[in-house]
Amino acid sequence: MSTNDVSVLSEDTSLAGRISGQDLTVLGGFEGEINVRGRLRIGPNAKVNAKVKAESVELEGHFEGEIRTKMLSVAPSARAHGLFLADRLAIREGAVVEGAFNLAVESDARPDAKPEAATVVVAPPAAADATMMVPPPATEPAQVAQSA
Asked: Residue 1 domain-assigned?
């Protein structure tokens, strides 16, 4: 198996349990734990209820649970609820994300980290598509930059 291989759970798949590996794309339903060393993509029609640990996560579908990652990207089609621990966070307009966030904490997250509770709804403007990026802080608290 090469490092470019991606495991895929198809749209007609519904699984429960524990998955570990390199890269994974979930297009169907999954409940349990996911631990991947690479990229996790949760497709637009996916319904996932899980505790996730991955290098990077691309969230396009429905998610409930906990995500620990270095980079979390949330697409306009995403609907998410849970605990999100990420070094970097990108939320596209149209996404709905509810829960607690803790940024710039290493992907394993410090046990003493205290997530901030928030509801994020990035509503699309009339014309432009924008991405909200929250970069990791240097020595001062992170600032939210929005680009159009």
From this structure: no
- The closest of 136, 65, 132, 67 to 93, measured between CA atoms, is 132
What is the number of structural domains in the chain? 1
Domain span at residue 97 reads: 6-147
Which pair of structure tokens corresponds to residue 92? 């596209």
Report the distance separating Cα 11 and Cα 14, nearest Å.
8
Residue in the structure block whose two tokens are 């996790």: 40
CA angle 17, 62, 55 (to 5 degrees): 65
Contact predicate 85/71, CB 8 Å: no
Asked if the structure places residue 125 within a domain, the reply is yes
Maximum distance among all alpha carbons in the chain? 47
Look at residue 82 and tell me if it is in a domain: yes
Task: Write the pLDDT tens digit of every residue in 98-111.
Answer: 998 886 544 454 44
**pTM (two decimals):** 0.71
DSSP class per residue in 58-69 = EE-SEEEEEEEE
Per residue in 60-83, pLDDT tens? 999 999 999 999 999 999 999 999
